Model the fold of this input.
Amino acid sequence: MKIADRYASAIRSSCLTVDERTTFSDTDVLGAMGLASRTLDQEGHPLAVALERLFAGDNGASMIIVQVLSDMAWRRARTTKVRLNRMGASDMAKACLAWHRDGVCKACGGHGTLVIPGSTTLGPHDCKPCRGDGKVPFERQFNLEQRELAGWLVAQMEREQSRAGPAAMKALAPRLDL
Done:
């Protein structure tokens, strides 16, 4: 079982008893993720555990993520000479997070083809809003000047999302028998 799956179940657990004989109990996983958060924040990766929390079901983490992404976008815009104010950076961060979290086309349900009317069978015609891709077109949400910056933000989220699990396992490793 992945640490992300264990974390998702641990945050909903009603039994948080501590047993020093365990290495992968709910309290162990929660503590390891907390240690990973502190370590990754100090190393300059504040998005890693926040994204893990968001995808585990903690919607409160979205405010932290938007704040961090907004600051990243604003700083990156200064270095790449993209015209973007703080409010625009916040709006871009919200749009990028929304697309990363749920970028599925609503018209076709992410299938890329439309359902035959009156049935549950997918038809032969591509979905016009997503052009058969199954995802909401990302680039159309931003003007031409800001598209590269928005794509960079999504890439940062994808990269950071892969850091939380290994860091939590590293926090558990001294107690595991490998």
The radius of gyration is 20 Å.
